[in-house]
């Protein structure tokens, strides 16, 4: 307690605790105590207090007590209750500042991500300033993780000429996500126009992925186009 140590403790000597010491073992504790007595048996501590003289301390304490009693709050009957409420107020104020900083940081992150997406859509001619282009209006009607990839495939006519079964096979890659290990054997793709279209889809995705990297759009932030699962 502070009453037992009114001044900082001064180290008189040093002793290394063995690595094999087990604080839960009574024998280890007895051995350590015996080693400590042997190590420090010859040391005679200086009991003279260093620092301020007792008289000076007494005068300082008396002055502080006088100021404390002269404070307007000292005579308040509800002083202790008010002190607890003040402590609670300052604690809540500190917590509020911390929450505001966290919210501000997240808000700035959302704003930066939004600006990057706008820049990417402008680069791809989905936006022109504050105007939404025809491509942008088509994109607005698409919903899904790979909506931008689907829009680019429509723009480039990747799926034109496919029969219903082939179109379904290609579009399924935009919504399907396999639950398998990364090193699993790749499935065999259908031959014919569907295989060619899927190759074009992967090519377009690679271009979009490169653009997203250029504009610092990260999939870990909940945006970006994952690779189609073929």
From TrEMBL:
Q: Which domain of life is it from?
A: Bacteria
The Gene Ontology terms for molecular function here are: ATP binding; helicase activity; hydrolase activity
Keywords of the record = ATP-binding, Helicase, Hydrolase, Nucleotide-binding
Transmembrane portions of the chain: none
Q: Entry's InterPro entries?
A: SH3_HelY (IPR058621), Ski2/MTR4_C (IPR012961)
Q: What is this protein called?
A: Probable helicase HelY
- Species of origin reads Streptomyces sp. SID7499
What residue stretches are annotated with the ATP-dependent RNA helicase Ski2/MTR4 C-terminal domain?
127-230
């Amino acid at each position: 307690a502070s009453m037992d140590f009114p001044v900082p403790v001064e180290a008189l000597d040093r002793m290394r605790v063995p690595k094999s010491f087990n604080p839960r073992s009574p024998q280890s504790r007895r051995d350590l105590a015996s080693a400590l007595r042997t190590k420090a048996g010859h040391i005679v501590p200086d009991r003279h207090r260093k620092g301020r003289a007792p008289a000076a301390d007494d005068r300082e304490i008396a002055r502080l007590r006088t100021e404390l009693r002269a404070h307007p709050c000292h005579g308040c009957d509800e002083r202790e209750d008010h002190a607890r409420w003040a402590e609670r107020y300052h604690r809540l104020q500190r917590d509020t500042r911390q929450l505001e900083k966290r919210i501000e940081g997240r808000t700035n992150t959302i704003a930066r991500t939004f600006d990057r997406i706008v820049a990417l859509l402008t680069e791809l001619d989905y936006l022109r300033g504050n105007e939404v282009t025809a491509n942008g209006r088509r994109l607005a009607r698409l919903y899904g993780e790979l909506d931008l990839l689907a829009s680019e495939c429509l723009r480039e006519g990747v799926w034109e000429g496919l029969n219903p079964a082939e179109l379904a096979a290609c579009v399924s890659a935009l919504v399907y996500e396999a639950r398998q290990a990364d090193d699993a054997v790749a499935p065999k793709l259908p031959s014919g126009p569907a295989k060619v279209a899927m190759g074009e889809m992967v090519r377009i995705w690679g271009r979009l992925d490169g653009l997203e990297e250029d504009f610092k759009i990260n999939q870990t932030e909940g945006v970006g186009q994952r690779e189609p699962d073929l």
